[in-house]
Design goal:
By secondary structure, the chain is mostly beta strands. It contains no helices and 28 strands. A four-stranded antiparallel beta sheet has the order 3-2-1-28, with no helix packed on it. It has a four-stranded antiparallel beta sheet with strand order 4-5-6-7, with no helix packed on it. The radius of gyration is 18 Å and the shape is globular. The N and C termini lie close together (11 Å).
């Protein structure tokens, strides 16, 4: 039995970070309960025995480190006006993106304390939604600018390249394949999938797929994207349409399945370590669902079970 953690929106019915149990053999989720009551804990990541969470206090926002065993806050840095919408660590470095403030923050964990390394100021309301590491660069999709901006870590995080998309595309999240020869990106506003070949800082668009017909885009927005370890399949969530889309990457990218997410407004999802299950949180129906996957063809086979969790946003296992 494994333990996972869920970040939630601030509402009267939510209590910050939740935890749940996950049965590896069956894919069943259970025992969802409050882990730590704290404001604006939308995003969550794990570093050793520490949870890295977004949070707000006294009208300032940022991130905090939480000791899992004692449920105590080890440290926090609150330098932003609104809470980040993305947090991820790589080794002992932490990267956050802030949709409203338009900043990317880089921290380092030193002796269980946070050290601010760099604040990259892009533009107020730039819609910064993710940070992806690529060689010595940070890749930052800026949804409201219709751009992906690339910053050089070794040169004081200077901006070195900008990928520009058509107006109202809204690039949101991306993933690389294992050898970093392809960058796959999903857009929020146009609900499109992009496949770029990558050679150093040259990004060449190979394929673009519409996840929804153009006349079905109203009140829909694609969100998260994941890739399997063997680089054969991509999974994407789309809110409004409440879809999970499966894309095969064999030969050339093509949509092979679209299925209901088990609820409404699938914000985030993850693949289990063995990639036999997909766990998705549906914000508007206050629930979380587990699906079985067929590893041979990548398709979602069946719903295992669903459990309740209020206004869930982020999930880790």
């Amino acid at each position: 039995m494994l333990t996972g953690y869920i970040g939630t929106y601030n509402t009267a019915s939510t209590k910050g970070i939740y935890q749940f149990s996950y049965e590896e053999n069956s894919g069943k989720i259970s025992d969802i309960q409050s882990f730590l009551s704290i404001d604006d804990a939308k995003c969550v990541d794990r570093y050793e025995n520490i949870l890295i969470i977004t949070t707000s206090k006294n009208n300032k926002s940022g991130i905090a480190l939480v000791d899992i065993s004692t449920k105590t806050i080890l440290d926090e840095i609150l330098l932003e006006n609104s809470s980040p919408c993305f947090v991820k660590h790589h080794d002992d470095f932490i990267y956050t993106a802030n949709y409203h403030d338009g900043v990317v923050m880089v921290y380092q964990i030193v002796n269980n304390k946070l050290k601010l390394i760099k604040q990259i100021s892009i533009q107020n309301k730039a819609g910064c939604h993710q940070v992806v590491l690529y060689k010595n660069y940070l890749i930052v999709p800026c949804l409201l600018l219709d751009q992906v901006r690339i910053f050089d870590i070794n040169n004081d995080y200077d901006l070195v390249k900008t990928l520009t998309f058509p107006a109202k595309t809204g690039p949101r999240h991306g993933v690389f394949n294992h050898d970093y020869s392809h960058f796959y990106l999903v857009s929020e506003l146009s609900s499109e999938f992009f496949d770029f070949s990558v050679d150093n800082l040259e990004f060449t668009l190979n394929t673009k797929l519409n996840l929804l017909p153009k006349d079905k885009l109203d009140n829909t927005s694609s969100a998260a994207i994941r890739i399997t370890k063997d680089n054969r399949f991509i999974y994407i969530s789309t809110r409004g349409a409440d879809l999970l889309t499966v894309i095969s990457l064999e030969n050339e990218p093509k949509i092979i399945q679209q299925i209901n997410s088990g609820g409404m407004h699938p914000r985030d999802f993850i693949l289990s370590e063995d990639e036999q299950y997909l766990l998705v949180v549906n914000k508007d129906t206050d629930d979380m669902s587990s699906f079985q996957l067929d590893k041979t063809n990548g398709k979602i086979v069946k719903l295992i079970n669903t459990d309740k969790v209020p206004h869930a946003i982020g999930i880790i296992l």
